[in-house]
Amino acid sequence: MKIVSVVGARPQFVKAAVVEKVIEKRNDIENILIHTGQHYDENMSSVFFDELEIPRPDFNLEVGSASHAVQTAQIMIRLEKILMKTQPDWVLVYGDTNSTIAASLTAAKLHIKIAHVEAGLRSFNRLMPEEINRITTDRISNLLFAPTQNAMELLSKEGLEKNAVMTGDVMYDSVLFYEKLAEKKYSLSDITELKDFYLATIHRPANTDNNENLQNIFTAFSNLDLPVILPLHPRTRAKLDVIKYSDNVKILEPVSYLEMILLLKNSKKVLTDSGGLQKEAYFLKKPCLTLRTETEWIETLNNNWNIITGPNADVILDKIKEDPTGEQGNYFGDGKAGEKIVEELTK
Ligand code: UD1
Known about the structure:
Layout: E1 2-7, H1 10-24, E2 30-35, H2 46-51, E3 59-60, H3 68-86, E4 90-94, H4 98-109, E5 113-117, H5 129-140, E6 143-146, H6 149-157, E7 164-166, H7 170-185, H8 188-191, E8 198-201, H9 205-208, H10 211-223, E9 228-231, H11 234-237, E10 249-252, H12 257-266, E11 270-272, H13 275-283, E12 288-290, E13 306-308, H14 313-319, H15 337-345
Parallel strand pairs: 1-2, 1-4, 2-3, 4-5, 5-6, 6-7, 8-9, 8-11, 9-10, 11-12, 12-13
Helix pairs in contact: 1-7, 1-15, 3-4, 4-5, 7-12, 10-14
The protein binds uridine-diphosphate-N-acetylglucosamine (UD1).
């Protein structure tokens, strides 16, 4: 059996690390790993491969940054040649980025089967590029790996249940696997001198490309009762010159996955517009405020472990005072999603 796995952006490196580890142990699978080059900076890309011990990609399409259409099209043009030559049984795609949809479309047109890790997520907000990428990828995939029961139900509502399998969430596998390694490899003082802090990230276009929203978020961060550590995505850094904020906001360069886990474990709460970080906060039992108007990960909202604030300073400053009202549920599987995914692919 031959699988071509396609990754391109930070969260996909984390998800693929889990599945690649399982595939590596199987001698009946030939695995070709392709990096689209959507993320390319050392601290956005190669640090993840080194730290998570992901095999070096067999191909790098080196598409870099561009508009949605150009980025998606360039991946398709470059990937098509490789898929035609390698003729895999499956193309394995992850999440909801432009790399995901580009790889899926290319495979579908070559009549190569597609398997989608993290299928069935919906924000019901079609202004998000990720929502378009998810809906389309799920629709043309042959095998859908749903991380949660809710994702299974959403796929079922779209008539896609016959292709869907509930596997659990590979990001949960990942936190369980790398949590100890993070503490072994780094100490908090390598990253920050602070002991008490909130941890934040911002990178969604709805926040970074709207000065009012971005200013509201920075105003809230400037007025929180603890310092805010903010490892900053290049998209957000590019907007800093038009934003006012106080020295309560401690900006860092993007951090590695293991450094992020360590920061999470030592933070008091998390404020983010990332989908992945909402869940990582949940797995590590840190309350989270989501700086968006909706979340795909509705399970995390139970008992206020995650609260949606939108980019609204008053709401953020108010909701940061609320603590979870009860225990967490077990929604994300048993930490063996990677194994289940590979088992399904080889059935
Ligand atoms: C992409 C995904 C998003 C995911 C995020 C994780 C899409 C549509 N969006 O968003 O779902 O949550 O990755 O980080 O696929 N840049 C650099 N260096 C890099 C990469 C990007 O400087 O290595 C800058 C460029 O200015 C680029 C901008 O960041 O234009 C945005 O990068 P892009 O890959 O288009 O989207 P992300 O915002 O990273």
